[in-house]
Design goal:
The chain is of the alpha/beta class. The chain contains eight helices and 15 strands.
């Protein structure tokens, strides 16, 4: 059996064929490989044939890669947008040390095989979004728009079975916790009142809007991202994923004039488990346009 591991903003999510669980990221500093046994049919690690793992931004590589072949866990730098707790690092290192076959999934960035126009920005999506896109495409087919809404809001377009590009949390729609830096944030950064990363961590609607306005705002911006990506693939069906997908669905449906597929917070981990199966069992050469490179280190 195969396992997918989603390095989310607030938790690490683990999924197998028939089970899943999550660990808050701060608690994941105590992760052990034996924790994965609960996902297996016989409660033993011997059942695990392969793992697909994500880690942070995944911006230092562009192919699905043997975990043994990565430098710096696949990062250009640990500095940047996001909160560092050590939980994801612990999980990544334990998987690498385990000896179980594992691949790391890259994020989408300027080195990725996406539409060059999206490369106006350095980062389009973190690695777990590839797991989401793969899972959604299994439901909706080779053309689809995916909007993942939780602490962040990130949207992707898949066309003709390949990822075209994405809109990351720091570019467009806010999430509950994170969002793009507006004029007030830029001024605060320039005066030294706050760091850019802390400003990003406080730019979500949970900090900027009253409670009763948060879901309507998330729905509006999510619908706007989906509509903008639809310019490149008119009529592509839409899926909403993440912990807030169900809450924003009525507003998104009203704005887009079509009802999206709604999937839950486990979509990334399940998709990553399917990627692991495709890589290790089916021996595919790419996953929705992202190449697979299992070349061993010389």
């Amino acid at each position: 059996m195969f396992i997918g591991i989603d390095h989310g903003t607030t938790a690490m999510r683990f999924a197998g064929a028939d089970a899943c669980f999550k660990i808050p990221r701060k608690e994941a500093t105590g992760f052990n490989m034996t924790d994965l046994a609960r996902l297996t049919p016989h409660n033993t690690l011997d059942d695990i044939e392969g793992i697909a793992v994500t880690y942070s931004m995944g911006d230092n590589f562009s192919a699905i890669t043997n975990i043994e072949n990565l430098k710096n866990r696949g990062l250009v730098s640990r500095e940047g947008a996001g909160e560092h707790t050590g939980g994801g690092t612990r999980v990544f290192d334990e998987i690498k040390r385990s000896g179980i076959s594992a691949v790391a999934i890259p994020g989408l960035h300027r080195g990725s095989p996406t539409d060059p126009r999206f490369k106006a920005y350095s980062h389009q999506a973190s690695p777990e979004k590839i797991g989401i896109a793969f899972e959604v495409s299994r439901h909706l087919g080779p053309d689809c728009i995916i909007c993942d809404i939780s602490s962040n809001t990130v949207s992707l377009l898949v066309k003709d079975g390949r990822i075209v590009g994405g809109l990351d949390a720091c570019l467009f729609a806010p999430g509950r916790v994170h969002g793009a830096l507006d004029l007030d944030a830029i001024r605060a950064i320039d005066t030294g009142t706050i760091s850019a990363n802390d400003a990003f961590l406080q730019a979500g609607v949970g900090k900027t809007l009253p409670d009763d306005q948060q879901i309507p705002a998330l729905a509006m911006f999510a619908a706007m991202e989906c509509a903008s990506l639809a310019l490149l693939s008119p009529g592509a069906p839409v899926a909403l994923c993440g912990s807030l997908a169900e809450a924003v669905e009525p507003g998104v449906t009203q704005l887009l004039g079509t009802r999206p597929l709604v999937l839950d917070e486990w979509t990334a981990a399940r998709g990553l488990a399917s990627i692991a199966e495709s890589v290790f069992k089916d021996k595919v050469s790419d996953i929705i346009g992202i190449p697979v490179d299992l070349t061993p280190i010389n």
